[in-house]
Design brief:
Layout (H helix, E strand, L loop, with lengths): L6 E6 L2 E6 L10 H16 L5 E6 L10 H9 L5 H23 L5 E5 L2 E3 L1 H7 L3 E5 L3 E3 L13 H4 L1 H4 L1 H10 L3 E2 H6 L5 E3 L2 H16 L3 H13 L5 H15 L3 H12 L8
Parallel strand pairs: 2-3, 3-4, 4-6, 5-7, 6-9
Antiparallel strand pairs: 1-2, 7-8
Length: about 270
């Protein structure tokens, strides 16, 4: 397993555990974070033994968002030419967006396990995950508004489809903190656990359940759900018909049907 400076990555029972590993900095997202997460999710996509992914944060907090030292470094590169400054900022923003696009575009389901702070850029990250779960001490905030800027790495684009437009506007305009119970009520998280230990136990149990399913079926399901964010129902029906014309020929279908008929637990190849 590759060693990373901002992450710890482990593969156990077909589940990749991707842990932000800067607890002494409240798991702030430094320069290494943004490049390493692309490499990690490229490895996840290329490794058939990985069937589900859990993202968590080491220590008391999930993440405090982008590292302010990184922003200060970027400010130090700015000159007097407005056009060149704009070019630098735009390319930087697009590069950071690409880091979370790698999470969103991963063909394996990605589950976020959130405790403590989930602020600013951390909201962008969990918005790119398939599902979100939190401990009772979790605190969520779209903090960019308090920094004098609009969130620009995915929150404003992905979160309306998760929690709805109206509540997102309130949170994005005010930057107020959302506690765990409200996060559950508005659909930001699927489930709330009592503490961090229960959170990881619960999320890994869900990940194991997903990992036991046909990887062909899981990948196809995620592909269809992602496709439907930007297409009409008739487009989606046409797409799944074409997709399953190939995928229904998978050996997994025979294995699943045989297991169901014999009331056995099916075992699928990677």
């Amino acid at each position: 397993m590759t060693e990373y400076t901002a992450f710890k990555v482990e593969l156990t029972d077909n589940i990749a555990h991707v842990q932000i590993n800067r607890p002494e900095k409240i798991n702030a997202m430094n320069a290494a974070f943004w490049s390493e997460i692309i490499d990690i999710f490229r490895w996840i996509d290329d490794t058939d033994a990985v069937r589900a992914v859990v993202i968590s944060g080491a220590g008391k907090h999930f993440s405090s968002g982008i590292d302010l030292m990184m922003l200060a470094s970027l400010a130090g590169q700015m000159g007097k030419d407005v056009g060149r400054n704009a070019r630098l900022l735009r390319s930087t923003i697009l590069r950071l967006q690409g880091s979370f696009n790698a999470v969103d575009n991963c063909r394996k389901p990605v589950l976020a396990a959130i405790q403590g702070y989930c602020i600013g850029g951390a909201i962008d990250l969990v918005s790119a995950c398939d599902m979100r779960y939190c401990a009772r001490d979790a605190q969520f905030s779209i903090k960019e508004i308090d920094m004098g800027m609009a969130a620009d790495v995915g929150t404003l684009q992905r979160l309306p489809r998760i929690i709805g437009d109206g509540i997102l506007r309130e949170l994005a305009y005010t930057g107020r903190t959302v506690q765990a119970e409200e996060a559950l009520r508005i659909g930001l998280v699927n489930r709330v656990y009592d503490d961090s230990a229960a959170l990881l136990d619960g999320v890994f149990a869900i990940a194991r359940e997903i990992a036991a399913k046909s990887p062909v079926a899981v990948a196809g399901t995620k592909q269809m759900l992602s496709y439907m964010r930007d297409h009409r129902i008739d487009d989606g029906l046409e797409y799944i018909a074409t997709w399953n014309a190939a995928m229904l020929q998978s050996e997994d279908l025979r294995v699943a049907v045989a297991a169901h008929m014999s009331k056995q637990q099916p075992t699928f190849a990677d």
